[in-house]
Amino acid sequence: MKLKNILSVFALMLASYANIQAQQTKVIAHRGFWKTSGSAQNSITALVKADSIHCYGSEFDVWITTDGQLVVNHDETFKGVTIQDATAAVCTAVRLNNGEQLPTLEQYLSRGQQLTTRLILELKPHRTPEQETKAIEGIVRMIKDFNLENRVEYISFSKHATKEFIRLAPKGTPVYYLSGDATPQELKSWGCAGPDYHFSVFQKNPEWIEQCHKLGMKVNAWTVNDAKNMQWLIEHKVDFITTNEPVLLQQELKM
Fold first, then answer.
1. Quick check: pTM over 0.90?
2. DSSP assignment of 140-203, as one string?
3. Which domains does the chain have, with CATH numbers?
4. Which residues in the chain land under pLDDT 50?
5. Cys-Cys link to 161, which of 72, 92, 130, 132 (CB 3.0-4.6 A)?
6. CA separation, residue 249 to residues 26, 51, 245 (Å)
């Protein structure tokens, strides 16, 4: 009887630990883990390094070129090349700050396929809804071809792009909205997985965090680089924090 009781207590402890782990705020490396030797924002190396420190996810940015190709970079104009006005050949001739070529999405996913970190794909707002839809169709198709549908999450500042990801991606794929101007109820009505807002939005509207959770949605906050704001968000039980300082955030989560 005593052994049975001990086993029951042990099982409850394990369940409690698993629940705590599931609830713990998770780390997303903003543009990959680039604040480290040999890395650069949105480089393949940054993706690999985010994986090496066991980040939940690595965020990266996607554009479509004039010839319908998908490339990875944050800035609309980077080192003199405006991506929406250039071909893929022109874009990929640009070198990142660590010497790597600006990667295509295909190259990025090919490397990501060998890793375990989740791929947090942001489509940048384009000049027309038609461009965004064309890009999303290509993205969703490529993700399927690489068999990465269970490891990708989509985010965008564009309402049109957000709703198109929800429409075109497999049902249940997490899609988050970035702009901070929609309530939890609005996001739920779109079919969003939740808000992915600047942390200041949640500090102004802390009740949104609980509202999202009650609606079955998750909450991400960006881009959080200091310990004070990290701790505020952790205490308010946000699900994810996107940061340029993933190691610092991992340390804060252990406190």
1. yes
2. HHHHHHTT-TTSEEEEES-HHHHHHHHHHSPTT--EEE-SS-S-HHHHHHHT-SEEEEEHHHHH
3. 28-253 (3.20.20.190)
4. 1, 9-22
5. 132
6. 9, 15, 6
